[in-house]
Amino acid sequence: MDSKSYFKHSLIVVALMLSAVSCKDYLDINQDPNAVIDAPIEQVLTSATVALGFWAGSDMNRYGALIAQQWSGQTAGATVQTQDYEKYLITGSDVNNVWNSMYATILSDLELVIQKAVEGGSPTYAGVAKVMKAYVFANIADTWGKAPFSEALKFTENSQPKFDDASVIYPALIAMLTEAITDLNAASAKNPGNNSTFYPGAWSASRAKWIAAANTLRMRLWLHTIKVDKAKAIAEISTIAAAGAVINTVADNFQMSFVNATNAQNPIQQFEIFRSNYLFANATLVDMMNTKVDPRRWRYFTSFPLHSGQFKGAKSGDPSSQLYSRTHIYLRGDTTNSAVRASNGSIAFNAYIYTGTAPIRLLTAAESFFIRAEAAVLSGGNIGGASADSLFRQGIRMSMSAAGVASAAAETYIAEQGELAGSEADKVKKIIEEKYVANFGVINEPWVDWRRTGYPSQIVKVSNAVVTSSPDVPRSFFYPQSEMDLNPNAPPQKINMAERVFWDK
After folding, report:
1. d(CA 263, CA 18)
2. Count of CB atoms within 10 A of residue 464's CB?
3. What pTM does this model have?
4. What are 74-100's pLDDT values in tens digits?
5. Which domains does the chain have, with CATH numbers?
6. CA–CA separation, 306 vs 344, rounded Å?
7. Per-residue pLDDT tens for 447-461?
């Protein structure tokens, strides 16, 4: 079986396993998910990578994108969950499944890979697992602020782990990524290769991609802490960038591909099919792109009216209707037909037939360059031998390339929008606004950037906010109700979602 066929087969098999439990509660983290059966390290890794890819495009992605005003749930007609989430009505019960899927499915499998790698003398497997483990735990820390970490993933040894603060988790994750790079460079009895749905293929080629992902994630974490210790964060980013082993091309994006097969299309496309009219383009993102005549709009959204070349977003509290742009090719895959325009200019959810093969992007070349551009602005100099302006322009260029924009259109846009001018704050504002557009579909990072910088400043409290849940745009989530009920070592439930993570100053 060739690598492409193996990838497709693995993806479909594990996707079917995941879909079989999609309407049920995941195992609680206080139970041992590995007590009944065991599996070879190759199969456990495949399962973990597929689960990670689906998770990064599912509930947690939607929560963050609704809060960061990239999607809107306000135009579906009858009241649906996405409308509640957009106005901050996200309860502890709402996050039970996503929490349990992270701990009992993804993280427990990754921990098992690490254990098996140590036992079998296969450190490259451990390295791959540690990169993904750090990525998931970073998202947990950024979303909740406190979470089980040092006592987590002990299986039956500790079913009631204490919660660690994100300020403790972060240094451990950076150290974990450093360990991962050492493991990835080590001689190994066996290598992941096609057993990972991230960077599948010959290990001789994918090893460098994993190392670049680990280093880029390190830069992301250091950037998050820029207001905690600016000098330290800039120095670390500069050192990583100078070494050069970071994500620099779209081909090296940390992302998972999907196939056009039942239950194996990407989760954003699957949600659009099974929850039609739950999500539309948000006016905050669309209006920003309209102002700049951004060529990515044609790939990001359907036009409204359809085929008009115009784009219209919705916002929380708008009248319920379908008279808005929808998510398009960039997040759903290519279309296989020409959609017909309705008399009112709208587009039905199933007017286009999508392949569902768009990747779920977790960490991209565009973000890698924007991280370095921001660090260069804040340092007042160069990062990795490059100026803030050149890094900024390259970030836009990578985003345009990933979106499928023609190079001529991309360069025209860069000529108009690619200069950083004004004060330090002005430059950071412009970087974050472009990063916000580039990170459309990337789990949580646009929300993180807004919390730590205040940009884009267009993200403001929605008009119909449920202020008892969050008096303003949420800064973190309630702890899962399952943890409140089952774990006596969990902290008291938050009063509201205004509680800040340690780097959110």
Report:
1. 9
2. 15
3. 0.93
4. 776 677 899 999 999 999 999 999 999
5. 3-259+360-486 (1.25.40.390)
6. 9
7. 999 999 999 999 999
